[in-house]
Design a protein that fits this description.
The protein has one domain (about 5-135): RNA polymerase II/Efflux pump adaptor protein, barrel-sandwich hybrid domain (OB fold (Dihydrolipoamide Acetyltransferase, E2P)), CATH 2.40.50. About 25% of the residues lie in helices and about 25% in strands. It is built from five helices and nine strands. A hairpin with a 4-residue loop joins β6 (about 55-60) and β7 (about 65-70). About 20% of the residues are buried. The model has no long low-confidence stretch (mean pLDDT about 85). It is found in: Cell projection, Dendrite; Cell projection, Growth cone; Cell projection, Lamellipodium; Nucleus speckle. This is Protein Abitram.
């Protein structure tokens, strides 16, 4: 029932051979995802995220900045602080050690969320269509 937020295979940071310069969990002057302190079975203290809530900002060496959004409603359980000291793992191991955050959706909403997800094959077909339409 938990959701692990990672960079998609099609994300520009994973496609273009860019180098990640920095990752910042400071979303605004008053909000840092690093201040998220979760405790207990009911996950008290967890920041609540909407689908459009920014999780972090990633800067690449060419000056581009990418804001990574939650894309899911739920409680922020954990952010991956390891990527702050070693940003390369975001690109080297995006679906394992290079994850960005862990989000726990509301129980009632979790079934609707998983039903709306694409299978690996469907995702690859979407990417192929996108690639064909841009060439």
């Amino acid at each position: 029932r938990i959701c692990v937020i990672t960079l998609a295979k099609a994300h520009p940071l994973l496609q273009s051979g860019k180098t990640i310069k920095s990752i910042n969990y400071q979303i605004s002057a008053n909000c840092s995802r690093l201040q998220n302190k979760v405790s207990g079975k009911s996950k008290r203290g967890a920041q609540f995220l909407t689908e459009l809530a920014p999780l972090c900002r990633i800067s690449s060496s060419d000056g581009e900045e990418y804001t990574i959004y939650s894309c899911i409603r739920g409680r922020l359980i954990e952010v991956n602080e390891n990527i702050l000291s070693n940003p390369a793992i975001l690109q080297e191991k995006p679906s394992t050690e290079g994850y960005i955050a862990v989000v726990l959706p509301k129980f009632e909403e979790s079934k609707n969320i998983t039903q709306g997800l694409l299978t690996q094959k469907e995702y690859e077909e979407v990417l192929l269509k996108r690639l064909n339409s841009s060439s």
